[in-house]
Every structure is written in C-alpha cells, then in structure tokens.
C-alpha cells in the first residue's frame, strides 16, 4: 500500500514537471506571432485595403493595443477573441491557416461579403472557435465535414448562400461502428467496421504548413521553426516520458486491483467473482430499440436510415441534425444526441410520452432509436425552415412578414405550449425555446421543435440549456422558464430584432425604452401599422412574461388566454391604418389600452 502511494506521488510530480516544461515551450511564442497571423489574414481577406488595416501598423507588439476595426480582444487585452467583418464588401480570399494561428479566437463573422476560396481542413486547428458565420459569400469547393465535426467547441456554423459543391454524405459514416441486430435488439460492434474506424483515426489532417499559401505572405511556420527547433526534441521526449509513466501507472493499478480481487475470493469463496457479475450486466448496457409512433406503412428499418443519403444541417457539441432522404424519396430530419447521462429505460419512457403527444403546433416525433452511446430522434423534415429564417429574411428585405402573420404565429406557439402544460402531472418543460426551434409547416403554422430532451443534458436535470438571451434569470427547467423564453420570442416578433447570433438583451432594451416613454420606437415598421389593434396589448403580455421574478410571470394557460382575447378583439375591429389615427398618437395610448389586471410594462423591473 505504501509502495502504491509513493508511486502515485512520483507520477504526479513527473506529470507536473512535464506540464510546466511544456507550458514554458508554448509560452515562448510572443505576441508578435499572433499579430503577424492577424496581419496575414487581413491581407488575404482584404487585398483592396477596404479596412485600412494590416499594412500601416507596426509588425511587432500586442494586436490589442491598436484598436483595429472589427477586432476584439479578451478582458486582459492580451489576445484576439473576436473578428467581426460583416457587410464590408471584402473581396479577398479566406486564409484559414492564418486565422487558426490566433490561439484564443472564439467568434468569427465574415457574412455578406464577396470572399472567395475554400474552407480547408486546417479549420480543425481553430480549437477554441465557438461561432463561425461565412454566410452570403463566394466560397466554393467541398465542405470539410470531417474537420468541422472534430471541432468540439463549435456551437453555431452558418455557411449558407455560398457556392459549395453539394454532396450527399451517407449518414452511415456517422454511425459506421454500429450494426443493428433484430433478434437480440442490441447494438453490437462489428469487427470489420472497427478496423475501418481505426484506419479513419490514423488519417492526419493537413497541417497549416502543408496548405497552399495565399497572396504573398511568408510561408507560415518557418520563422517559428528556426527560433524554437531546439525545443522540439525536449517536448517530444517529455511527451513520450509522460505516456510511459501513464501506462505504467495503469498497469500497476490493474495489478493491485487483481491482487485485491484474489484476496477477496480467498476470504469469501462462496461469493461470485466480481468480473463475472460485470459480465452478466454488460448485455443490458448494449441494448437498443427502434420505435415508431406512426402507422406501420410509414415506418422503416434502421438499415434504411443508415443507407440513406444525408446532409449535415447543424452541429453542436451535444447533437447533430441531418436532412435525410430515404430510397423512396421520403424526407426526414434526424437528430443525433450524444453523451446523454440517462438510463436506457428512462429515455425510452420519456420518448414514448412525447411521441404520443399530438397537436398541430408541436412537431411530431415520428420515432426514435436508442442505444447506450447515442440516441436518434426522427421527425418529418419541414421545408419552410424556421421562424429565425423568416425573420432574418424579412430584415434583409427578401421576404415579407405581415403583422397578421406574426400575430397568428404568436398565437400558435402559445397554443402549443398550453397543450403541453395541460397535463400538469405528466408535463415535461421545453427548456430551449427560441426562434430557430420554431419551425413552419407547409401552411406557415408554427411547430414547436426540440421538445422533451433538454433535461437529459444536465446530470441534475434542473438546469436549462437554452441559448443566451432566452434563458430566465433563475436558469431552471420549469414552466415559468418557458414563459420567459416565449416572452423573448414575442419581443422579437414585435421589434423585428433577433436575439440569436447578436447577443442582445432584448427584454432589458425594450424595458428601458418603455421607461423613457419611447414606446413608439420599440415596434418594427410592419408592426406599427397595427399598434393600437394588438401590438400594445401583446407588448404588455411579453413584458409580463420576461419579469425578473418567476412569481410575477403568468402561467402558459394565462398567456394563451390573453392572446386569444387580443385575437378576438382584433377580428372585431377595422384596420388600424384607416380608422385609428396616426401611429404617434397610438404610442401614447399604451396604459389606457392595457387592462388593470395586467401590470403596465416595466412595472416588474
């Protein structure tokens, strides 16, 4: 026992020494190398000097000292964390290699420019990147799907409206190490596919130095190699030594555990050996099932799903979303959930409860496949996209979004939520309500998606996972938390502003405008056409929903009832633009329109 303790102390000491030595080697890369990488990226993306930076600033020093346009740094002002160069008519090339040399870069948005080139596999080296928006450019070539899938911190990716080569990768590639066995209803490893998986893991991504250079910058990495080449053998040696001590420690721990097992067997010969017990429990961990909630003629086999063509539409560190086309041309959306800490039976019970929930404003769950390591949720694919797509297209001027449609959508979302919370004993909170999770069916009716599995992502099952801007201050998975998120959606419909991707605190902004008696400036121009009819009452509902205290928020049923009243009043009145006077006059009528039973806006803050 004493020997093991000494060995563990020695191992910890060696690891600390190794980490310290490695940190010294890494930290020797000074601020100039980061500035040079930023300069190379700017030169490539802006050859016409639209930004007027990248050429007229010193090469050495801290890039955060120069207050460059569109470049933000961390709170210490020592490293670049954000690059926002949107809608600036940039006509250069995307230099991924230089971009990924910024070690702490988390946010990149180059949307609505004329940037050309490809997204190389070197994007995988942007290890801390959480947001990447390359929308509406002239990028081409193949999408580096494998490289993007390895970026564990990447939470939002938008590469739409470009000129990429469209391919249909097999969904089977994502699940290539699984085989479905009908009789045993288990998901077992396939030896041949195991070897294929190992072969895939052995393929190395093209390093930055192997990719073609862009423009006239110096070949990347040369100066770094000359300055620190003497450190490479030291770092490699430390790495090998740490690996050796790690595996030696594991071997010693295993031998010690074996000795303890043998000792317990000698002391208690009538007891079943521990390895045998684990062997008997193992089959339960590998069980799998494919369940459908539709008619038999609409269902299919797991093999059909794995052999279908699929396009990756969205990916986060928790899940991936695919558009799947079966051989019979049927369209489905498949959500792949990863790393869920939930028992097999509990997940199945929850999914069956959700699958039996039928309502015109809730996206129906067609079926699910559950295994020990991952879960697949199957839905009908909605070709009309999401409410976020509609609002963004309206902001860009490519689509209309009339106020009557907004009112109908708000009513539909509230009606769907009210149906969920009708069963007070069985209801499951949503926990992730936002514009992108409200889909539109063929008739433009809202469908609440992503429902039912938010609680599985948190071990305590008590915290929400919704995006910033939609989460209630208490951050609890509850009905009042969903009411808060719904209130933010109402404010987005009224103001024409989006929370996703902008980080705006919309409730705070609207409340400040109301307190300063600038309520008229809150509404979007389309909403202003019917301000007296429904916008003012709906604004009051929204502000009540986003109250800081959960006790001051209404229930979902109360919200739905109030919106129905607004709809009824609206149907019995004429068009505001013809009979209600000017919009400026209506803006002053906020408190006279709202009934006394609902507090005036801003009273809860």
Would you kindly provide a written description of the structure presented here, covering whatever features stand out?
Pfam families: Pkinase. InterPro entries: Kinase-like_dom_sf, LRR_dom_sf, PRK1-6/SRF4-like, Prot_kinase_dom. One of its GO terms (molecular function) is protein kinase activity. The structure is a single chain. The chain is α/β, with parallel strands linked by helices. The protein has 4 domains: 1-164, Ribonuclease Inhibitor (Leucine-rich repeat, LRR (right-handed beta-alpha superhelix), Alpha-Beta Horseshoe), CATH 3.80.10.10; 230-272; 289-380, Phosphorylase Kinase, domain 1; 387-593, Transferase(Phosphotransferase), domain 1 (Orthogonal Bundle), CATH 1.10.510. Helix content is 39%, strand content 12%. It has 19 helices and 17 strands. The protein has helices spanning 2-27, 31-45, 96-99, 145-149, 191-202, 222-228, 231-267, 274-285, 302-306, 344-355, 387-396, 403-420, 479-495, 506-515, 531-545, 556-571, 576-579, 583-587, 590-593; strands spanning 71-73, 80-84, 107-109, 131-133, 140-141, 156-158, 163-164, 179-181, 186-188, 289-292, 309-315, 319-325, 331-338, 365-370, 374-380, 438-440, 446-448. The strands form 5 sheets. It has a 6-stranded antiparallel sheet with strand order 10-14-15-13-12-11. A 5-stranded mixed sheet has the order 1-2-3-4-6, with no helix packed on it. Strands 5-7 form a two-stranded parallel sheet. A hairpin with a 6-residue loop joins strand 1 (71-73) and strand 2. The protein is globular.
């Amino acid at each position: 026992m004493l020997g093991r303790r000494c060995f563990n102390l020695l191992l910890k000491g060696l690891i600390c020494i190794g980490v310290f030595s490695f940190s010294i080697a890494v930290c020797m890369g000074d601020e100039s190398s980061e500035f040079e990488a930023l300069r190379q990226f700017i030169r490539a993306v802006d050859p016409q000097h639209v930004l007027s930076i990248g050429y007229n600033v010193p090469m050495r020093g801290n890039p955060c000292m120069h207050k460059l346009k569109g470049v933000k740094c961390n709170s210490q002002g020592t490293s670049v964390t954000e690059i926002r160069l949107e809608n600036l008519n940039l006509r250069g090339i995307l230099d991924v290699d230089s971009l990924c040399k910024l070690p702490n870069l988390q946010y990149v948005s180059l949307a609505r420019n004329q940037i050309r080139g490809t997204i190389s596999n070197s994007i995988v080296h942007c290890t801390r990147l959480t947001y990447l928006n390359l929308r509406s450019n002239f990028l081409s070539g193949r999408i580096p799907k494998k490289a993007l899938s390895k970026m564990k911190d990447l939470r939002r990716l938008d590469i739409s409206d470009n000129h990429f080569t469209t391919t249909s990768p097999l969904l089977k590639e994502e699940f290539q190490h699984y085989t479905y066995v009908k009789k045993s209803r288990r998901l077992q490893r396939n030896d041949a596919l195991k070897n294929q998986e190992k072969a895939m893991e052995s393929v190395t991504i093209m390093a930055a130095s192997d990719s073609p250079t862009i423009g006239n910058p110096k070949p990347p990495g040369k100066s770094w190699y000359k300055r620190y080449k003497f450190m490479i053998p030291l770092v490699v040696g430390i790495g090998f030594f740490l690996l050796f001590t790690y595996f030696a420690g594991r071997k010693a721990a295993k031998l010690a555990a074996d000795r303890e097992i043998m000792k317990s067997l000698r002391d208690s010969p009538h007891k079943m050996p521990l390895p045998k017990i684990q062997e008997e429990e193992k089959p339960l961990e590998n069980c799998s099932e494919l369940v459908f909630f539709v008619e038999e003629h609409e269902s299919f086999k797991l093999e059909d799903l794995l052999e279908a063509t699929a396009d990756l539409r969205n990916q986060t560190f928790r899940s991936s979303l695919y558009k799947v086309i079966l051989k019979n041309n049927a369209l489905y959306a498949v959500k792949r959930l990863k790393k869920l800490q939930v028992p097999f039976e509990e997940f199945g019970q929850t999914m069956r409860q959700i699958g039996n929930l039928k309502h015109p404003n809730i996206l129906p769950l067609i079926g699910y496949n559950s295994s020990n390591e991952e879960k697949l949720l199957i839905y009908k694919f909605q070709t009309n996209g999401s409410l976020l797509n509609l609002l963004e297209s309206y902001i860009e001027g490519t689509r209309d979004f009339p106020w009557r449609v907004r009112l109908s959508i708000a009513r539909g979302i509230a009606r769907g939520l009210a149906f969920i919370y009708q069963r007070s004993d069985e209801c499951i909170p949503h926990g992730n309500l936002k514009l992108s999770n409200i889909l539109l069916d063929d008739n433009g009716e809202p469908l609440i998606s992503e429902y039912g599995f938010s609680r599985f992502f948190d071990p305590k099952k008590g915290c929400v996972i919704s995006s910033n801007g939609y989460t209630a201050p208490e951050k609890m998975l509850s009905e009042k938390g969903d009411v808060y998120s719904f209130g933010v959606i109402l404010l987005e419909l009224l103001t024409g502003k989006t929370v996703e991707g902008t980080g705006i605190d919309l409730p705070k902004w609207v409340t400040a405008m109301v307190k300063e008696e600038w309520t008229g400036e809150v509404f979007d121009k389309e909403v202003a056409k019917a301000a007296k009819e429904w916008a003012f009452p709906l604004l009051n509902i929204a502000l009540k929903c986003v109250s800081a205290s959960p006790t001051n928020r209404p229930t979902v049923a109360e919200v739905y009832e109030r919106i129905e009243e607004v709809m009824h009043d609206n149907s019995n009145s004429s068009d505001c633009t013809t009979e209600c006077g000017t919009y400026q006059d209506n803006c002053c009528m906020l408190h006279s329109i709202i009934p006394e039973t609902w507090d005036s806006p801003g009273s809860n803050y």
